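User: Let's play a game. I give you a shape written as tokens, and you guess the letters that built it. Ready? Here's round one.
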């Protein structure tokens, strides 16, 4: 029992050791692009305004709805049906 208690706690178990010299940077990058996954990095001040990714998605969806509903209000009129004023 004493041998287990004396085990150094800073040492990793052999099953947790990983040889980083064999790792490949960006191994799944192409697959993620093909599957349509994307990552957006928020600036720190913007990230503080939201609790999690679902909050960001909710706000962006509401912004999209707002732009769709106001788009017809901001389009220029074709000018038909409006008589020019006499000078």
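Assistant: Ready! My guess for every position:
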């Amino acid at each position: 029992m004493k041998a287990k208690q004396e085990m150094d706690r800073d040492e990793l178990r052999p099953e947790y050791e990983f040889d980083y010299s064999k790792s490949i940077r960006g191994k799944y990058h192409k697959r993620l692009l093909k599957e349509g996954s994307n990552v957006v990095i928020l600036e720190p001040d913007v990230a503080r305004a939201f609790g999690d990714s679902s909050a960001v998605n909710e706000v962006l969806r509401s912004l999209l709805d707002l732009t769709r509903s106001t788009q017809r209000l901001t389009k220029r009129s074709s000018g038909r049906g409006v008589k020019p004023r006499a000078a």
